[in-house]
Amino acid sequence: MSTLEIKDLHVSIETEQGVKEILKGVTLTVKTGETHAIMGPNGSGKSTLASTIAGHPRYTVTSGSITLDGEDVLAMSVDERARAGLFLAMQYPVEVPGVTMTNFLRTAKTAIDGNAPAIRSWTKEVKEAMAQLRIDADFAQRNVNEGFSGGEKKRVEILQLELFKPKFAILDETDSGLDVDALKVVSEGVNRAHAAGNMGTLLITHYTRILRYIKPEFVHVFVDGKIAEQGGPELADRLEEEGYDRYLAGAGTAVQA
Amino acid sequence: MTETTEKARIGAPSIAGFTEEGESLSPTPVATGPLGGDAAKSHSHGGGYGIPDSSRAGRLTSYRLADFPELKGTEEEWRFTPLRRLGGLHKDALDGAAPAVAVEAPEQVRVETVGREDPRIGSAGVPEDRVSANAWEHFSEATIITVPSGVQLEDRVLVTLTGAGLAAAAQHIVIVAEEGARAVVVLNHNGQAIVAENVEVVVGDRAELTLVSLQEWQDDSVHASSQQVKVGQDAKVKHVAVSLGGSLVRLTPTVRFAQPGGEAELFGLYFADAGQHLEHRTFVDHAQPNCVSNVLYKGALQGKDAHTVWVGDVLIQKQAEGTDSYEKNQNLVLTDGGRADSVPNLEIETGLIKGAGHASATGRFDDEHLFYLMARGIPEDVARRLVVRGFLHEIIQKIGVPSIEEHLTEAVERELEAGDN
């Protein structure tokens, strides 16, 4: 079993108006087998947390720590984090010119595992995973995300999740921009990866509708760079009914559950 | 970041004899004979909008240097070229020693070194610019490589041109694939040189020729090469330009259909490092009906002041009914500080064609791409190479000569390694 531990994390970014603190002390522990939903209004810092865990250079950690089984994640480069078992399904996956999906998937798998996958079984695995996510077989020959629709990009993120088998998956608003059918397909993919075992999930979302398909054991509500409230699945149900308004009214002073 | 992509002059009338207001009753300018200095027209070079200064068909061609006015650098065909870095190729006497020519060829191939008076010189084309005319005026001997009629070669012909110094020189090569011949010819330019070169290529009726021109010069070299290909009836030519080394390389491949039914593919690959100027200007002259052409040039740039230029002219003449043509240029800017100019020009004088298309795209490999690939566990250097290799491989795999493909794959790797330092 693995543990991803975030302690009193403070993160800021450079803006034209100067340095701005986005995360103001986040503490969170995720263990393999667990699913945590991180919810909150826009601008509350949810995506900053996701990008900071993955190591995006835009975000500067000013204090606090992130450790994976005691190893200092913040000391690792972006690729080292991925090889250590962290996976970020991105909110806006970029198009990478010149690299086919096939080439990309094989190269990444090789990097993560430390050796090249056996060609025959790998090809079969990719094909099956694509079929399950209803990704057209042609996509294998297309450049990474190039010309893919928003929904297709999200499916391809989940494809990678299933193929790379990380210890921890961070899904950054994977549900945004998906229609109901795509949402189902994508959720099934996440659930399959979860069922395969040994994965912890951090599900970042603005809306509750993905929680109909992916069931979290823990729900954390982000407001103004901090966890304002946390609880079990029932907290999500309450958010469904009440929205985020009650947190926003007294942002920063909300009572910890 | 200075990165520009220039699109074709949209809105400019593309049919000779027509202006935006309608048909012009004055006679359409017609190119006169090869020696006719009177073909020179007064040019205007405004901002690139409005009526084009001339149809590509009207451009001056002449064997005589004196027919070409001195260059100012503002001319349409020179506006991207830093003349001060041309090593005098456009104005000085080119009396240095030309790069040494060594030919490795199967025995059926005739290889000759001839003087200026040989009648085969001038069989494929007339100089289309001042540097080419200067080379014509100054070359002392030419190498003629002939693949005789009906001979189908298994092995490639390798022509190695090795420069040995920086005295401005002129070079002349003639390649003839006679009727029904089939061959692959590789021109491998290396060493150190300042050279203006004319390569004449005659592809006989029903012949099939692949010509690969590799530019792997040492860093301080300057190379201007006019490569004119005349395509016979139902003949096929594949021209591949690969420019990697040299301070300034300016290649102007021209393919002219002399008979109906020809097919031409023009591929190019270039990789500009800091300070390099790599320029390619392709011209496909559809002067005959029912010919097919396809142009694809891809380039990568890395480092400060890496500059690439691609200008693709396609002219579909009035009589060239049934033409099918396409041209595309793609550039990948890997670091800040590079500049890629890309200009597709399409002139169509008849509507009775199968197709005529053009495209240009310049993109950059940026931190977000890098982040995405690294977030999947791929180390930075591997990520960079992955992108460039994939991008350029499309051209390499078109060459169809395994030994050359292997060589180029390695050469691209070396370029990438150089970029890591």
From TrEMBL, chain A:
Pfam families: ABC_tran
SMART domains: AAA (SM00382)
Keywords noted in UniProt: ATP-binding, Nucleotide-binding
InterPro entries: AAA+_ATPase (IPR003593), ABC_transporter-like_ATP-bd (IPR003439), FeS-cluster_ATPase_SufC (IPR010230), P-loop_NTPase (IPR027417)
Record-level Gene Ontology MF annotations: ATP binding; ATP hydrolysis activity
Domain ABC transporter: 4-249
Domain of life: Bacteria
TM regions (residue ranges): none
Protein family per UniProt: Belongs to the ABC transporter superfamily. Ycf16 family.
Record's protein name: Cysteine desulfurase
Species: Sinomonas humi
Automatic annotation (TrEMBL), chain B:
The name this protein goes by in its record: ABC transporter permease
GO biological process, one term: iron-sulfur cluster assembly
UniProt xrefs under Pfam families: SUFBD_core (PF01458)
Family: Belongs to the iron-sulfur cluster assembly SufBD family.
Boundaries of every SUF system FeS cluster assembly SufBD core domain copy: 165-391
Organism: Sinomonas humi
Region feature (Disordered): 1-56
NCBIfam families the UniProt entry points to: sufD
